[in-house]
């Protein structure tokens, strides 16, 4: 969400050197450029986000993270490419269970020390969504905290996921959740034993656009 806000405010990510063996991270540091593999993020991006954050008048210091992200989206300028803005306009909740692990949260903490976002509200809201679903399905891009946040909600519901897709490049042997198979989720009761599911071993920036293109094409044909 930090990077989404940056782009919406007009601060852009830069294409860096494709051959990272030729990159000097010390030189990038001196130039105030932060490297994310082959993408560079100037320090001025965070300065722009800080200016945006410092001007916000937060209405409730004890709101859920999803409610706060809705508030941020409402205050962003119009942008059809912004996840936060579009979801706020369409009233689609964004759950971010690891929100405090972000540059955005750091700046919020510095400027709003009384802010106490309630993660438990979001946890219960996610469980309620899963509980109310007549037929549950999940599409997981990557893994980590968001993956478990979704799947653990299904674990305690009458109906576990009957459809599941996972796009990942991680391996299951290390025992980390990002590489854990959907087969493994069956043992936890998170994915139904009779579910239709598939794990796609691929770069998500390749696989996800192709999947969405196919869905869009299929919807037009039907």
From TrEMBL:
UniProt keyword annotation of Transferase present: yes
SUPFAM superfamilies in the cross-refs: DHS-like NAD/FAD-binding domain (SSF52467)
Keywords assigned: Transferase
Gene Ontology CC: cytoplasm
One Gene Ontology MF term: deoxyhypusine synthase activity
UniProt record similarity statement: Belongs to the deoxyhypusine synthase family.
PANTHER family tied to this protein: DEOXYHYPUSINE SYNTHASE, DEOXYHYPUSINE SYNTHASE-LIKE PROTEIN
Designated name of the protein: Deoxyhypusine synthase
Naturally occurring in which organism (per UniProt): marine sediment metagenome
